[in-house]
Write the structure tokens for this entry.
Amino acid sequence: LVTLRVAGVAFLEETDVRALREAVESVVEQAPGIHLVLDFRHVKFLSSAVLGLLIRISKRVYEREGELRLCNIHPGIHEVFKITRLTNVFEIYEDVENATRSFSEHR
């Protein structure tokens, strides 16, 4: 189980997206079958590029037989997830504890 806390309030610039991609990809590539929780506790804004990145990360995690959970999504961002139907793509939890617990509940 790996929990990554996404640092920063806003992910709007290309450099932010690249840094997030590199951090997550390095963890995913090192650990086939990973149980990964991305904690967005301090994030208030995301660009559409980040949404695309999350979809690519999700695909890669599942290709490597892992599972991905998102948690602590700001209400404004959660609304974007609902509008774009990404709530059907991602398992989103209120906090790290519930996201972590969900891995054992799905077995």
The two ends are 15 Å apart (CA to CA).
